[in-house]
Specification:
12 helices, four-stranded antiparallel β-sheet, about 290 residues, about 40% helix, DNA primase DNAg catalytic core, N-terminal domain, alpha+beta, 2 domains, five-stranded antiparallel β-sheet, DNA Primase, Chain A
Length: about 290
């Protein structure tokens, strides 16, 4: 296995292209600016220098290069962040595939994982604009801070279910892929909408922190719809194998010498707030080995 030159990779990729894949950037002077994803940014505080290939938030202080941005945004190991950067940039690096952490996936599984990653960013962004203001107010009324909303990547699915589908199609995903990911549902021949439309979104992740499914919560008690609905089982998602917040809990379990099991997402977030980081939620699922 050849040695991978990470500095050379960093010089070959365009940090603006990579970060713009996660956060919309706008030209500003000699650089680019956007909303910082690492805190509740209302005015664009994130500055990205294409010349220096670095980013810095002049509000929360987050800073680094293209690899650290992806690593911190997606909460994944460094080598996986490098691989992700190369995938976005269309860069093939000899020896990097052998270093990647985690299981291998089929082409369709890889496409669905990218779709869900893009969708998680989209859902989370809706809470920062007018369309998600009611949902954001609800989360605040439940005691959630903006940092918690960001850390847990909570989002909102617009009530017009066509908007989500149009967004995904703009990212070159087909209707079949949108349905295969568990997000889209066909309500008439050729007409696909977001099955979680009008709901708060809680991403469900695998052991590497990658989104594989969602649970959507209704906003109003008076709604006759079911309180929570999950996206159906897919190539990536098997409900009996998933615990909410598992990846983060795993990181803290040894230090706390315990894992706390609760039923709901809000319960898990509340315990995390008081310092019990090794907490998972069962989502009403029977536990397996």
């Amino acid at each position: 296995m050849g040695k991978v030159d990470f500095d050379q990779i960093r010089r070959q990729v365009n940090i603006v292209q990579i970060i713009n894949n996660y956060v919309p950037l706008a030209r500003h002077g000699s650089g680019y600016v956007g909303l910082c994803p690492f805190h509740n940014d209302k005015n664009p505080s994130l500055q990205v220098s294409q010349e220096k290939q670095i980013y810095k938030c002049f509000s929360c202080g987050a800073a680094g290069n293209v690899f650290t941005f992806v690593q911190n945004y997606e909460k994944i190991p460094f080598i996986n962040a490098v691989k992700k950067v190369c995938d976005i940039a269309g860069l093939k690096v000899e020896g990097l595939e052998e270093k990647e952490e985690g299981p291998s996936f089929s082409r369709l599984e890889t496409k669905l994982m990218q779709l869900l990653q893009d969708l998680t960013i989209y859902y989370n962004y809706q809470l920062k604009v007018d369309i998600g203001s009611e949902a954001l107010s609800y989360l605040h009324s439940r005691g959630l801070t903006d940092k918690e909303i960001e850390d847990f990547k909570i989002g909102f699915a617009p009530s017009d279910g066509h908007l989500t589908v149009k967004f995904l199609q703009s990212k070159a995903y087909s209707l079949d892929e949108i349905i295969s990911a568990g997000v889209g549902v066909e309500i008439s021949p050729g007409e696909v909408v977001d099955r979680l439309r009008g709901r708060l979104i809680f991403p469900l992740t695998d052991t590497y922190g990658r989104p594989i499914a969602y649970s959507g919560r209704r906003l109003k008690k008076e709604d006759s719809e079911q309180k929570y609905i999950n996206t159906p089982e897919t190539l990536l998602f098997h409900k009996s194998d998933v615990l909410y917040n598992y990846q983060q809990a795993l990181n803290h379990a040894r230090q706390e010498e315990a894992v706390y099991v609760v039923e709901g997402f809000m319960d898990a977030i509340t315990l995390t707030r008081v310092g019990l980081k090794a907490v998972v939620a069962t989502m009403g699922t029977a536990l397996t080995n």
